[in-house]
């Protein structure tokens, strides 16, 4: 993939350890990317809608979304993204600790593009993030622009 500008990724995650690891893996990745991080669901929607301090935020090419978030959970964020005509084409990858079948079904019912359970093992977590990067940033053709 020959891109001059980095792919914009929004990580919605409240665990500082997972944020740090994801940042490290993405930094060493094959594709030039910019990882932006917000730590709760309210902030995620402000970022995506370019409100408040996010007025100049770049539109993400991909959202990595945890389900268990403060203020507004990941399911609510996913429903808002996929229900918004301006945001619905942004691919959303659920990246969460939950293995609960109800969470998986609900996420796909809300039109998640992918559901990945975070491993607790450090090396497996790194492998999962690399696999996400390899697939979503090198294999998949992502929509460009604001989708108008």
Summarize it.
This protein has 148 residues and is of the alpha/beta class. It has one domain (7-137): Response regulator (Rossmann fold, 3-Layer(aba) Sandwich). It has helices spanning 16-27, 41-48, 74-83, 101-109, 122-139, and strands at residues 7-12, 33-38, 62-65, 92-96, 114-117.
Describe the structure.
- Helices cover 39% and strands 17% of the residues.
- The protein has 148 residues and is of the alpha/beta class.
- It has one domain (7-137): Response regulator (Rossmann fold, 3-Layer(aba) Sandwich).
- It has a 5-stranded parallel beta sheet with strand order 2-1-3-4-5, sandwiched between helices.
Any descriptors?
Rossmann fold, alpha/beta, 148 residues, five-stranded parallel sheet
Instruction: List low-confidence stretches.
Output: none
Strand content: 15-25%
| SSE series | EHEHEHEHEH
The number of helices is 5
Within CATH, the superfamily carries the name: Response regulator
CATH class: Alpha Beta
Q: Could you tell me the mean pLDDT?
A: 88
Distance between the termini: 24 Å
Query: Could you give a short account of the major beta sheet?
Result: 5 strands, parallel
Quantity of strands, as a count: 5
Total number of distinct structural domains: 1
Looking at how many chains there are and whether they match, the oligomeric state comes to: single chain
